[in-house]
Amino acid sequence: MKEMDTRMETDSVLKVFLRYLIPSLVGMLLMSVNIVMDGIFVGHRLGGVALAGINIAVPVFSIFTAISLWIGIGGATQFSFALGEKDVPAAQRIFTRSIIMVFVITITLAAIAFVFRVPLANVLGANPETLPYVMDYMTILLMFGFAFTIENILSIFVRNDGDPNLAMVALIVTAVVNIILNYCFLFILNWGVSGSAAATIIAVVVGIGVLSTHFFKKTSRLKFVKFRFTKKAVGQTFSIGLPSFLSEFGLSVFTMGYNIAIAAVAGTAGVAAFSVLNYTHSVILMLFLGMSSAIQPLISYYRGAKLQDREQATIRLAIITAIGTGLVFFVGGFFGAGHIVAMFGTFDADIVNLATTAVRIFFAGYLFMGFNFVMMTYFQTTGRVGMAIWITVAREMLFMVAFLIILPPFFGAEGVWASIPVSEAIVALSIVIYARRKHIFSKAV
C-alpha cells in the first residue's frame, strides 16, 4: 500500500478532509479569480457594454467546463474507487480513456460551434450593441477552448491521485499569469476583449504545464496505458459524471436565462448589473465547487475500501462547512453589496442601484447552495445518481426557469434576482425530505 493510501485510511478524518479541502478551496478561489479579473480589467478599461458582451459569451466557457466535469468526475470517481480496491492497472485505463474522450468531444463540438458562432451569439442574448464584444471573446474561446477541458480534467485526476497541493499550485500559477497578461494585453497593448480571452487561454496552457509535472513523480499512478472503449465502461463514466455535467450546463442556462430576463425588465443596464453579480457569483460558486471537489476523492476511495465510518464522518464535516460558509457569504453580501459592485468599476447610477440590490437579494441563495452542492456530490459518488441529477436539474433549470417566468411580472428586477434563492431553498428542502425518507442522515450525518 502506498504512503498516500495509508494516510487516507489511518489519519483522522478531519485531517484528511482538511488536506483535500484547503488546497481545493484555494485552487478554486484562484481559478475564479481568472474569471473575475477578466471582468475587473474589462470593466475598468472598456466599460459596462464590453463587460456585458463577455458575460453573454461566458456560457461557451461553461459548456467546455461541463464536458470536462462530466467525463472528469465520472472517470475520477471510478479511478479512486479502483485505487480503494488496490487495482492500479484498472485505474490507469480509466484515466487514459477519460483524457482521450474529453479531448475528442471538445474538439468536435468547438468546430461545429465555430461554424455557427454568429447565430450562437444571438441565441445567447447578444444584441447589436454587445455583439462585437461577444464575437471577439467567443471566437478565441472556440478556437482554443479545449485547453480549458484538458486543464480541468488533469486537475481532477491529479487531486484524485493524492496530490491536491499540485492541483492548487497549478491553479494559482494560472491565475497569476492571467492577471499579468490581462493587464498587458488590455492596458498596454490595447487588444480589447480578444486580448482578455487570449490572456486566459495562455494562462490555462501554463497551468497544464504545471499539472503535467505530476507524471514525473515516483508516487504518480497517472499513466497512459492501452485500453479499450467498452460500452459498459463508457456508460459508467457518463452515468456517474452526468450530474456534474448538468450542474455546469445549468450554469449556462442560468447565465442565459438571467441575461434574457433582466434585459426584458431593465435593458442593457440590467445586463451590465447582472454581469457584476455573475462575476461575484462565480467566485462563490467555485468555492462551493471546491468543497464538493474535496470530498469526491475521499467518498469514492472510502467506498472502494469499504470504510463506511470514514465516509459518513467526511460528509458530516462537508455539510457543516458548506452551511457555515453560506451564512458568511449571505451576511457579507447583505452589508457589503456597495463595495462589491465598486470593485468592477465606476458605472452609471442605474447600473449601481440594480447591481447593489441584486447582490443583497441573490446572496440569500448561498444559505442553501453549498448544502445542495455537497449533497449532490455525495449522492453522485455513492450510486444515487438519480437524486444527484434531480438536484442539478431542479436548481438551475426547472425551478429557476419557472421563477424567472413567474416572479418578474410581479416584482420586476427584484423578481429576477430572487429566482435562484427561492429555487435553492426548495431544492434543499427536497433533499432533507428525501434523506429522511431513505434514512440517509441517520447513516451518513
Automatic annotation (TrEMBL):
Compartment(s) of residence: Cell membrane
BP-aspect Gene Ontology terms: response to antibiotic
Keywords: Antibiotic resistance, Cell membrane, Membrane, Transmembrane, Transmembrane helix, Transport
Tagged with keyword Transmembrane helix: yes
Residue intervals passing through the bilayer: 20-43, 49-73, 94-117, 137-158, 165-189, 195-216, 256-277, 283-302, 314-337, 357-375, 387-410, 416-435
Highest taxon of source: Bacteria
Protein's name according to its UniProt entry: Multidrug export protein MepA
Protein's membrane topology: Multi-pass membrane protein
GO molecular function: antiporter activity; xenobiotic transmembrane transporter activity
Pfam families for the chain: MatE
Family assignment from sequence similarity: Belongs to the multi antimicrobial extrusion (MATE) (TC 2.A.66.1) family. MepA subfamily.
Cellular component terms (Gene Ontology): plasma membrane
